[in-house]
Inverse folding.
């Protein structure tokens, strides 16, 4: 994606920071110093004024190398609870941007560095066209649309719930189902149901025709849904599959915006009831969503002077 828009791309070795025992931890620990050295060489060549990092284990070597070279570092944490990578990067950062005020309690050691910016949301996603959305999907303009998405890889749990409850849901709704790579079910041919592995340019238009969104609890996806003022049912990854960050993200958004949240072993019958309940709820338009793009860019320009 980066190369397509003409931005130079360089890669470095990185060791994944796992919270559980794995033989890969013993291997990956040696990748970190290699990655730091590679990042150090790249940064010396490019001589950037600022390094901006969104977290993830790939960011750690770059942030450390930048700090050693005296390059200013700005990091951004999307989730309520910071991941291990950003907690490591926090000590090397000059500024720490956060999406939630609640994140401050997890980074209290670095309070003087923290700036509440909100989560950045791409402008293109806000410019959807309703006519294009209906034309692309082929759906009926006179029936409400549910958008279902489970992240770039799809979500087996959500896919199974939607397909298990499809006959009941289609009595009242139409469904746009983004099911992830390799997860299309070609046996499903029902009026009012369309499925895609993933969407790119068309995503903004599909958002524009959707009244309700069913999603995982990734902070970036939830920020987009909130910015678009859509009703939502969030089914976050549980603590067995993640560090629990998606649950916290979902609960905070739900409390502020009137969304629904389902956690754990969700049954199809309960899922259908939850969709209907969320559809009856009103989106809390009084809650102001903060798009972090402007504040983050302004900060980068200021720090980079």
């Amino acid at each position: 994606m980066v190369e397509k828009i003409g931005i130079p791309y360089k890669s470095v070795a990185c060791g994944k920071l796992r919270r559980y025992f794995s033989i890969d931890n013993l291997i990956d620990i040696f990748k970190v110093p290699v990655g730091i050295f590679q990042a150090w060489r790249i940064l010396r060549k490019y001589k950037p004024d600022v390094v901006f990092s969104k977290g993830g284990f790939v960011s750690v070597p770059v942030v450390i190398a930048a700090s050693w070279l005296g390059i200013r570092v700005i990091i951004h944490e999307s989730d309520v609870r910071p991941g291990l990578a950003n907690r490591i990067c926090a000590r090397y950062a000059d500024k720490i941007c956060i999406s939630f005020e609640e994140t401050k309690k997890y980074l209290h050691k670095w309070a003087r560095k923290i700036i509440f910016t909100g989560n950045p949301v791409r402008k293109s996603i806000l410019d959807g066209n309703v006519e294009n959305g209906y034309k692309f999907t082929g759906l009926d303009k006179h029936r409400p649309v549910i958008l279902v998405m489970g992240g770039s890889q799809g979500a087996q749990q959500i896919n199974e719930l939607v397909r298990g409850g499809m006959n009941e849901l289609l009595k009242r709704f139409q469904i746009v189902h983004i099911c992830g790579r390799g997860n299309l079910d070609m046996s499903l041919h029902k009026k009012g149901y369309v499925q895609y592995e993933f969407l790119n340019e068309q995503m903004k238009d599909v958002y524009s025709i959707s009244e309700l969104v069913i999603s995982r609890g990734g902070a970036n996806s939830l920020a987009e849904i909130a910015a678009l003022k859509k009703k939502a049912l969030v089914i976050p990854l549980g603590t067995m599959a993640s560090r629990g960050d998606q649950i916290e993200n979902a609960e905070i958004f739900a409390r502020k915006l009137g969304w629904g949240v389902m956690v754990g072993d969700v049954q199809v019958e309960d899922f259908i009831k939850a969709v209907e309940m969320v559809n009856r709820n009103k989106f809390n338009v009084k809650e102001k969503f903060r798009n972090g793009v402007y504040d983050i860019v302004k900060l980068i320009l200021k720090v980079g002077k």
Remarks:
- Strands lie at 50-53, 72-77, 95-98, 114-116, 145-149, 174-178, 193-196, 212-215, 231-234, 260-261.
- Residues 31-46 form the longest helix (16 residues).
- DSSP finds twelve helices and ten strands in the chain.
